[in-house]
User: Fold this.
Amino acid sequence: MPPRPRLPAGHQPLDQILFAQGFGARRECEGLILNDLVSVQGQLVNDPDAAFPEDRLDMVVDGQPWVTHVKALVMLNKPAGYECSLKPGAWPGVHNLLALPLRRRGLQPVGRLDQDTTGLLLMTDDGALLHKLTSPKHNVPKVYEVTVKHPMTEQQVQSLMSGVVLDDDPTPVLAEKAEMVSELHLRLSLTQGKYHQVKRMVAAVGNRVEALHRSQIGQLTIPDDLAPGQWRWIEDPAVVLP
Ligand code: URA
Assistant:
């Protein structure tokens, strides 16, 4: 095969673009193109070598509309009954809720939500961004809607903000904000992300979490039209950085 010609910066042959997006092995991607199953910006393209910009390219692949993202960052409205572990055990993994190309790309959850916690979860295949978003240096605030078993007392709310000691570390952990929305609904904003942190903090002040939902990360909230179990691209990581 003759060598492929040099391409302009940020351009790739279409079969390579499909492969990098997660549409299958190189042969499968080539097959999709040769079988007239790929259109780009509304035009059918049947040449696997045709070069296009690799990022934010508007395609339809085998009936599926797809805008390419060289690095994927998505939000998921996590339902209960899914695990964030990459090797889930008793429950299905959250990656099962993503489109197949994203599953093939091996997106990882940014931090973890418990199986029974619902709400905003980020997933990415961008290693540098994953590191930034999970590093304690970056302190991205996260907001949790907590349903508690017993009405919270003013003293309990104050303790959450002044700091409570958890069983694995003598250094107290504290909420950036803690407000009572109603008698059994506490809203907590945390900048750390310790294991079962909300459940353990609430237990440490003598109450108990009955239900937990993450409603916000940085500036990002769950869009009204993103139902539980659905995912969406995040176009600009700045919304989830401090
Ligand atoms: N804190 C918890 O206890 N559980 C979660 O899922 C998230 C934060």
Observations:
- The first strand starts at residue 11 and ends at 13.
- The longest helix spans residues 26-34.
- The chain is about 20% helix and 30% strand.
- The pocket of uracil is lined by residues 113-114, 117, 196-199, 212 (CB under 6 Å).
